[in-house]
Design a protein that fits this description.
With 174 residues, the protein is α/β, with parallel strands linked by helices. The protein has a single domain, classed as Peptidyl-tRNA hydrolase (Rossmann fold). 43% of the residues lie in helices and 16% in strands. Strand 1, helix 1 and strand 2 form a beta-alpha-beta unit.
Length: 174
């Protein structure tokens, strides 16, 4: 069994914010690969935690236990301010400063796969909260759509070809 988790906030007002890019990747994955998810032979499910970003581990941990998913078979997609907009980085998660990821670590432990999606940094470092909860600016929509596509394909690559292949292909791309 494989579980793909996209982090975000469930409230409508956050629908297209920088912090919800994990949800956007899950939505794109579900649209593109819904036939995989709906197959009688499917050992794959996606999840958009509805607990709020900082409590994402609650429902994720419950699902991991209920489905008996091993941590190495959990893929978590989330925003990352340390990456420039448009970049992604795939790695095994050992620790994190991202509150949603920390919540998941608290409930299932480490060594799951993280797909970090770059959202860039705010100009004013004291406005991080406002930055991640704001919509993307209109002049970067093309880049945002491209990185959502790229992250979706990276998740599919992890599933089809493994973590090492996906890291080699996507951690180098800009």
């Amino acid at each position: 069994m494989k579980l793909i988790v996209g982090l975000g906030n469930p409230e409508t007002k956050y629908a297209h914010t920088k912090h919800n890019i994990g949800y956007e990747v899950i939505d794109t994955f579900n649209l593109r690969y819904g036939d995989l998810l709906n197959s009688n032979l499917s050992n794959l499910t996606t999840h958009k935690p509805q607990d709020g970003m900082n409590s994402s581990g609650n429902s994720t941990g419950e699902l991991v236990r209920r489905l008996a998913v091993f941590n190495q078979d959990v893929i978590v997609v989330f925003d990352d301010m340390d990456l420039p907009l448009g970049a992604i980085k795939i790695k095994k998660v050992k620790s994190s400063t991202h509150n949603g990821v920390k919540s998941i670590i608290e409930t299932i432990g480490t060594d799951f796969i993280g797909v970090k999606v770059g959202i860039g940094k705010p100009a004013d470092k004291s406005k991080v909260f406002e930055y991640v909860l704001s919509d993307f600016e209109a002049n970067v929509f093309d880049i945002v759509n491209e990185v959502i596509e790229k992250a979706t394909e990276a998740v599919k690559c992890i599933l089809d070809e493994g973590l090492d292949k996906a890291m080699n292909l996507y951690n180098r791309s800009k």
